Prior knowledge:
The protein is of the alpha+beta class. The strands form 2 sheets. A 7-stranded mixed β-sheet has the order 1-2-3-7-6-5-4, with helices on both faces. The chain has a 5-stranded antiparallel β-sheet with strand order 11-10-9-8-12, with no helix packed on it. It is globular. It has 5 helices and 12 strands. The mean pLDDT is 95. Biotin (BTN) binds at residues 17-19, 41, 44-47, 50, 52, 61-63, 105, 115-117, 128-130.
Amino acid sequence: MANWAGCAVRREASVDSTNRAARRWAAQGAPHGAAVVALAQTAGRGRLGRHWESPAGAGLYLSLVLRPGPQSPVWPSLTFRAALAAADACQAACGLRPAIKWPNDLVLSGRKISGILLEREGDAAVCGIGINVRQRAGDFPPELRGRAGSLEALSGRSVSLDALERALLASLEARMDAPGWKADYTAQCVTLGRTVRVLAPDGAFDGFAEGLDDVGALLVRDEAGQVRRVLAGDVSVRSPEGYV
Ligand code: BTN
């Protein structure tokens, strides 16, 4: 069971975005470990300005306020620790362990089942996690069909949202407090050791994902043989053939 993660929880039937709600709360002094959980989001937000589909009761939509302290060395790894925690929780809930697509998408059977949006609010971070739980293939909008999946559809097991939330809070706490993240992350990251296409605002390039540096930047050897350091902020990484 979690100790500090979920020490205060705000539950909403519907909210614009749990990240926005958690940021508003953080700005008013929400403590380390405060969480916002919603049954539905009307304007769920993803990375790179994308939308996150959030129909009522179909997924877990949770945002956690983190206050690691200004000097904490944990800041650069928050997003990677969150990905490991979400994978732990999915495994606990459905018996299957998702892989991680750098930086923080969770993938089961080649389909994205979870995404993470980490944002800064003053001296706090807000870690927003969305996990698809009940959607059937036809529930996703056409542009996501074939790329998105849900825990229940892919595992064939029924998943309790409450149990998934408890598992996620416990794993977030454990992963945030753990001494390291890189060895576990490297072992679970499907992007490494593959040819990737990096889509950045200033252009795209193909290369081979050789590894990660100590802050989690992806080290990609491009076709000219030069190693380029790719930061998660504004890039999308995929295989030249498709999503994973
Ligand atoms: C992504 O893969 O693009 C990240 C998706 C993050 C979605 C979650 S759902 C809970 C929290 N609230 C939001 O508005 N976004 C995150």
